[in-house]
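Researcher: I'm preparing a figure for a lab meeting and need a structural model of a single chain. I don't have an experimental structure, so a prediction will have to do for now. The sequence is pasted below. Please return the structure as tokens so I can convert it later.
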Amino acid sequence: MLEARGVSVERRFELGGNLPHEALVAGTLDLYPEYTGTSFTAILQHAPITDPRAVYEKVKQEYADRFKVEVSQPLGFENTFAILVRGEDARQLNLKTISDAASQTPRWRAGFGQDFMSRADGYPGFSKAYGLKFAEVREMDLSLTYIALSSSQVDLIAGNSTEGRIATLDLIQLADDRHYFPPYEAVYLVRQDSLTRVPALREVLGKLANAISTDEMRRLNYEIDGRKRDPKEVVNEWLKGKGF
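Model: Understood. Here is the structure written out token by token.
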């Protein structure tokens, strides 16, 4: 969208951990997409809370005060931990919420990624909040947990809510009925001086406010990860469909 407005864009990929934040503050990045819950807990070092608006407003205020960074309006989708079970189990056992599944866990095997096992908002607090006692807990690569679940090697996993394979593998996301997980709304973090230097930035970010749902993001992720399509082609189709 910026390039369509004549702005030259340099893309940098594979920036893990806090590298994007450090680069943004140092001025070597102008903007990057982030999740509000990650900013709130990993960068600002606050204990997790569950109110999306409170998290957003706190992140917005502190990023402006501490880093001279503006937080865009939410893009519309959230990428939270998704507690997933097989569709056949959900239908047979009438499972709709995590609490519904709690009584099943003594005979279930769980599969979790390293991130979920180690984070403050991950497995230790999650299992305590819901009183979960699994027959076995396996730590494995996150990308493998979806296959392990669908092939009955495990019975419950913590995936990402925007994962494209959720629908294609007939997995069901259980509702976080005790509101344990903090909100992970997608936003852009952008330097205030970049907004001044590149006026098109504010226009583009305004158009993207609430423009893409979690279901849409799952579908787009599947087009790229599942069908191995070129991301640029998939994005251009989405932009045209939105009239952008």
